[in-house]
């Protein structure tokens, strides 16, 4: 009978599972701020937004298969395991990213928070998009601006639009006026909040 090391195998499984989860997250840049939680049972979930009917969250399955052939077993080491896990993490992250952006797009369409690009990024389109979203502030007026997720091919157009917002006096004034209005709205929301207790 061959010796078995169950506690070592369990410890190894924990280490490899944690490594795999880190590799998947690493391949999903920009998701750090997205709330996540583990659902231990059930097949449905819902989001309740203030003043709206609860909306069921669409569940999806993401998975990646990792195969080790009989020939590979004899010469398999941690370097080989890492390579296999990295490949699986890439597949898993790709599925999760596609689902995330599809769900985000659907939610934004439903809530009317879509700004059609038409001719690409312009300073006007950036202002229009910022005007549609909820922005929180620090008490000193510092805004919590959103992350912007774009395709690499759109980077230069966005950079030029943001530069125009920062340097063109007409757009700088429009941006400042909008942010002042959003800060006043935030102050009003904060002043009218009902605190527990």
Question: Please, could you describe this protein's structure?
Answer:
The chain is mainly alpha-helical and 197 residues long. It has 2 domains: 6-111, no CATH class; 123-191, no CATH class. Helices cover 54% and strands 5% of the residues. The chain has 6 helices and 4 strands, in the order H-E-E-H-H-H-E-E-H-H. Strands 1-2 form a two-stranded antiparallel sheet. A hairpin with a 7-residue loop joins strand 1 (45-47) and strand 2. Helix 4 (123-132) packs parallel to helix 6. The model has no long low-confidence stretch (mean pLDDT 85).
What topology does this entry show?
Blueprint: H1 6-26, E1 45-47, E2 55-57, H2 70-74, H3 78-111, H4 123-132, E3 136-137, E4 143-144, H5 155-167, H6 169-191
Antiparallel strand pairs: 1-2, 3-4
Helix pairs in contact: 1-3, 4-6, 5-6
Average pLDDT taken over every residue? 85
Number of helices: 6
Strand portion: 5-15%
Question: How much helical structure, as a percent, in the residues?
Answer: 40-55%
Q: Tally of extended strands?
A: 4
Structurally, the number of domains stands at: 2
Using the alpha-carbon principal axes, give the shape. elongated
Largest sheet descriptor: 2 strands, antiparallel
């Amino acid at each position: 009978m061959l010796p078995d090391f169950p506690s070592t195998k369990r410890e190894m499984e924990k280490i490899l599972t944690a490594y795999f989860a880190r590799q998947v997250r690493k391949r999903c840049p920009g998701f750090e701020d997205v709330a996540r939680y583990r659902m231990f049972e059930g097949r449905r979930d819902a989001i309740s937004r203030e003043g709206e009917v609860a909306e069921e969250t669409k569940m999806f399955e993401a998975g990646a298969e990792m195969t080790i052939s009989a020939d590979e077993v004899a010469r398999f080491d941690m370097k080989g395991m890492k390579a296999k896990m990295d490949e699986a993490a890439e597949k898993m992250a790709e599925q999760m990213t596609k689902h995330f952006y599809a769900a985000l797009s659907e939610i934004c369409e439903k809530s009317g928070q879509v700004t059609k690009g038409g001719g690409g990024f312009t300073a006007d389109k950036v202002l229009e998009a910022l005007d549609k979203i909820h922005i929180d502030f620090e008490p000193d007026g510092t805004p919590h601006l959103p992350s912007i997720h774009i395709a690499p091919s759109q980077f230069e157009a966005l950079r030029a639009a943001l530069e125009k917002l920062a340097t063109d006096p007409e757009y700088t004034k429009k941006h400042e006026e909008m942010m002042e209005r959003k800060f006043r709205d935030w102050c009003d929301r904060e002043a009218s909040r009902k605190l527990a207790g």
